[in-house]
Structure formats: C-alpha cells, structure tokens
C-alpha cells in the first residue's frame, strides 16, 4: 500500500462572479455567488480521489490522507467540509482521522474570492482563525499513521508550505524517522519568507507563476533553472494559459520539458480558474505515484496540464477523471 498524505489548510470559499474586477472603493453587482469547500490540499485531494476511484482495480493501491486543522468535529462547518468529499452514492476514500479538530472553534477558515469574467482572474482574500498545527502534533500524527504493521509501506508527504518554518521542521522529522519517504512541497505565495529553505529540502517542488514572477523570472523554465540549487529530483512550474514546465534534476539530462495548456490551439472558454494549480498538482502526484514506470515524463506532465486545462473550463472539480 502507498500512502499519500497532504498537509495543508482547508477553507470555505465564498466566490462572487463579477463582470470585471472592481475598482477600489467602488460598488459592483455580482452575477453569482457560490459557497464551496476549498483549500489547496483539499482541492488536490478532491481531484486525486476521482482519479484513484477510477483506478480501483489497478495494482497500485493508494490511500489518501488529509492533515489539516479543522473546526470542532461537531460543528456544522466541519460536517460540511467532510461531506464535500463524498459523492451521492459513495463515501470518500480520503482518511480524515489525522485532521486536527480544534475544540471550541466552530468557524472554518474562510476565503472571499472575486472571480472576474473579463479576465478569468481569481482574487483571493482569506482569513484563518484556527490554531495552526505544531511540530509536536505532526510528530504524533506520523506515529499514529505509521504503525509497526505498516512499516515497509510507502509514504509520500505533500506540504502546502503555508507556514514554512513549521513545514521545514516537519520535513526534518520525516527525514529522521522515515527516511524512505518522498516529500513534495508547494511554493505558491509570493514573497513568503522561508519558502526557499523549504524547497531546498524537498524531493519534488511545485512552483507557482506568482512565486516565480515575484522572484523576477519571465517564464517557467527560467524559474526552474534559477531555483535549481536543491536536493530535489524534480521541479515544476505552472504558467496559466502557457501550461507548465518540468525539470528532472537527477538524470544528467536536465533540460526543461514544456507542455502547453492548449496544444490544439482551439479556443477554450475559461470558466473557473480557482484551484487550477491544485488540480495540476493532483495530476502530477497521480502520475508520479501510480504510473512510475508505465508513463514517460512527458506523459506525466501532459496528463497534469491536460487535467488543469479541463478544470478551468468547468465550475468546481466534479467530473474531472
Ligand atoms: C485555491 C484555494 C482556494 C482557497 C485558497 C487558499 O487554490 O485553495 O480554494 O480558498 O486557495 O489559499
């Protein structure tokens, strides 16, 4: 059995669709409002779950887990979050037993998102009042997740990289206690201190366009070449409508592979870019964990880009597999 553990925050997203991005201190009427569960790791898991359910008969058995701080287990917010992963007739295959349910907290972390029809942009303002996970809490999770019977199983840990200092210590803990683990990190938020150090410790690094631009890179390949002083064997960078680049650093052949978002050139209608990067990560993790040998590097990258391209053409994450 392979275990894929995603460590990151969960949000309830309130999405306002507007004809164009508003001016500061103006009033603008939205054309739609929608509330749905969000958060980078939960979004990635929602997509991964679909891919894994489709593969139930495959030889590769993967158990996905979420490690996230959530409100009190009895709160309506947490019930809503957990039920957002199930489908009408099936329970979720995601293990939520290692989430940290914060007693006495009834409100989920919230994002308010302005989604502009004119440009397809999504502008996110969020608030998270839940106490953050500590390194000791993480260490106990590792202990309960990896029981003696489960020694010898494979573990892939993916960190959102929200609180880089904590994530870094968690990675050090894993390197000491489970040295065979694979570790990936997402480096998304521009100018957040500690993300360079975090990337330096991971096996796989996912860079966002906004991070790369904040470091002065003009494109994804420049980012992957510029940020290459790492232990990582693979680095990736997404670039919106231009697709993504990947660079495998372990093979001597370290050229960037580029995959365009829309190779056919046919016009696509952008409906919802919220979570496109999270969907790309789902597609890539799926390729890296479930199709190690039977998919080429190009196939893994183009699967992830294709999945993210399908995602932006629909609202939410349903029906992607
Ligand atoms: C999209 C998203 C939203 C969430 C926000 C958190 O990538 O995960 O669902 O509100 O980003 O930063």
Short synopsis of the structure:
The chain is α/β, with parallel strands linked by helices and 321 residues long. The chain has 9 helices and 14 strands.
Oligomer: single chain
Can you list the strand order of the major beta sheet?
Answer: 4-1-9-10-11-12-13-14
Distance, first to last CA: 22 Å
Q: What molecules are bound to this protein? A: beta-D-fructofuranose
Instruction: Say how many strands there are.
Output: 14
Radius of gyration: 19 Å
Q: What is the element string, with H for helices and E for strands?
A: EEEHEEHEEEHEHEHEHHEEEHH
Give unreliable regions as ranges.
Answer: none
Annotate the secondary structure layout:
Elements: E1 2-7, E2 11-18, E3 32-38, H1 40-54, E4 62-67, E5 69-71, H2 76-83, E6 100-102, E7 109-116, E8 122-127, H3 135-145, E9 154-159, H4 164-177, E10 182-187, H5 195-201, E11 204-207, H6 209-214, H7 220-226, E12 234-238, E13 244-248, E14 256-259, H8 276-290, H9 297-312
Helix pairs in contact: 1-8, 3-4, 4-5, 8-9
Bound molecules: beta-D-fructofuranose.
Beta-D-fructofuranose binds next to strand 2, helix 1, strand 8 and helix 8.
């Amino acid at each position: 059995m392979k275990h894929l553990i995603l460590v990151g925050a969960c949000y309830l997203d309130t999405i306002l669709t507007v004809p164009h991005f508003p001016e500061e201190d103006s009033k603008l009427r939205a054309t739609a409002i929608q509330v749905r569960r969000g958060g980078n790791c939960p979004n990635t898991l929602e997509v991964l779950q679909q891919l894994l359910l489709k593969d139930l008969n495959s030889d590769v058995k993967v158990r996905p887990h979420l490690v996230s701080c959530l409100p009190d287990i009895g709160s309506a917010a947490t019930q809503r979050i957990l039920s957002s992963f199930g489908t009408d007739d099936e329970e979720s295959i995601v293990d939520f037993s290692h989430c940290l349910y914060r007693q006495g907290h009834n409100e989920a972390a919230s994002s308010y998102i302005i989604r502009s029809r004119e440009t397809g942009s999504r502008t996110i303002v969020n608030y998270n009042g839940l106490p953050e996970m500590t390194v000791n809490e993480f260490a106990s999770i590792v202990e309960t997740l990896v029981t003696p019977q489960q020694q010898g199983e494979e573990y892939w840990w993916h960190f959102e990289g929200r609180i880089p200092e904590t994530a870094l210590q968690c990675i050090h803990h894993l390197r000491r206690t489970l040295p065979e683990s694979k570790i990936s990190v997402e480096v998304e938020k521009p100018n957040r201190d500690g993300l360079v150090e975090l990337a330096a410790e991971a096996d796989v690094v996912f860079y966002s366009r906004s991070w790369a631009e904040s470091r002065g890179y003009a494109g994804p390949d420049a980012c992957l070449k510029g940020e290459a002083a790492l232990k990582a064997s693979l680095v990736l960078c997404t670039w919106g409508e231009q697709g993504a680049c990947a660079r495998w650093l372990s093979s001597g052949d370290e050229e960037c592979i580029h995959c365009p978002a829309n190779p056919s050139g046919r016009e696509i209608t952008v409906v919802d870019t919220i979570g496109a990067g999270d969907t790309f990560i789902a597609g890539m993790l799926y390729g890296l964990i479930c199709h190690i040998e039977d998919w080429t590097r190009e196939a893994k990258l183009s699967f992830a880009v294709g999945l993210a391209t399908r995602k932006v053409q629909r609202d939410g994450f349903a029906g992607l597999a």
